[in-house]
Specification:
The complex is a heterodimer of chains A (112) and B (116). Chain A is built from no helices and 11 strands. Chain A is mostly beta strands. In chain A, strands 2, 4, 5, 9, 10 and 11 form a 6-stranded mixed β-sheet that branches. A 5-stranded antiparallel β-sheet of chain A has the order 1-3-8-7-6, with no helix packed on it. The N and C termini of chain A lie far apart (38 Å). Helices cover 0% and strands 55% of the residues of chain B. In chain B, the strands form 2 sheets. In chain B, strands 2, 4, 5, 6, 9, 10 and 11 form a 7-stranded mixed β-sheet that branches. In chain B, strands 1-3-8-7 form a 4-stranded antiparallel β-sheet, with no helix packed on it. Classes of the chains: A mainly beta (112), B mainly beta (116). At the A-B interface, strand 4 and strand 5 of A face strand 9 and strand 10 of B.
Chain lengths: 112, 116
């Protein structure tokens, strides 16, 4: 049973518009959430994270929102750029473990 | 050289061969991980080493054998693999967070393994 779910396998967005990637989780013990980006033939790279004591964290064009009551988080990229085209993985972990649980990933394509 | 380095990048082997994957990190981390990534599946955690001690083994078949000789190096020894073992094998490292800090994992670029 997947504890971290990314239900959209792919997303296509026009350059300059907003990209919204969604992630749901089932384990209420999760208290730290991360997003990773992965280009083909490369390993995932850390993008942004959020602790459960916050509901928003922003870093440049990237913002992560956390809704604890809904067990949902989302990654907003604005404005989207063609270089953002990659697979985005959501991950979560609980305070008792430093080992994250990953979702299946969402493939984002940003069209010029 | 910085980051997490994996060798080889690509490996093709027969089911009766024995080979090893190597991972090296230059980040001063004390935890290292092996993941398997198959198409359209989540990253599957295989093994975790913290301070050179194996702390997690996620029901991985014995044909995969990890080795962590020191905190900078991690190996995955392979023998008599099956075609379904063909996948991207990713190594990662991190601080294990026991001090309370939330540190992300740093990944290598993976070894693309094909079993004939």
């Amino acid at each position: 049973d997947q504890q971290v779910k990314q239900n959209s396998p792919s997303l296509s967005v026009q350059e300059g518009r907003i990209s919204i990637l969604n992630c749901d989780y089932t384990n209420s013990m999760f208290d730290y959430f991360l997003w990773y980006k992965k280009y083909p033939a490369e390993g995932p790279t850390f993008l942004i994270s959020i602790s459960s004591i916050k509901d928003k964290n922003e870093d440049g064009r990237f913002t992560v929102f956390l809704n604890k009551s809904a067990k949902h988080l989302s990654l907003h990229i604005v404005p989207s750029q063609p270089g953002d085209s990659a697979v985005y993985f959501c991950a979560a972990r609980s305070g008792g473990s430093y080992i994250p649980t990953f979702g299946r990933g969402t493939s984002l394509i940003v069209h010029p | 050289e910085t980051g997490v380095t994996q060798t080889p990048r690509h490996l093709v082997m027969g089911m009766t061969n024995k080979k090893s994957l190597k991972c090296e990190q230059h980040l001063g981390h004390n935890a290292m991980y092996w993941y398997k990534q198959s198409a359209k599946k989540p990253l599957e955690l295989m093994f975790v080493y913290s301070l050179e001690e194996r702390v997690e083994n996620n029901s991985v078949p014995s044909r995969f054998s990890p080795e962590c000789p020191n905190s900078s190096h991690l190996f995955l020894h392979l023998h008599t693999l099956q075609p379904e073992d063909s996948a991207l094998y990713l190594c990662a490292s991190s601080q294990d967070g026991r001090g309370g800090s939330n540190q992300p994992q740093h990944f290598g670029d993976g070894t693309r393994l094909s079993i004939l």
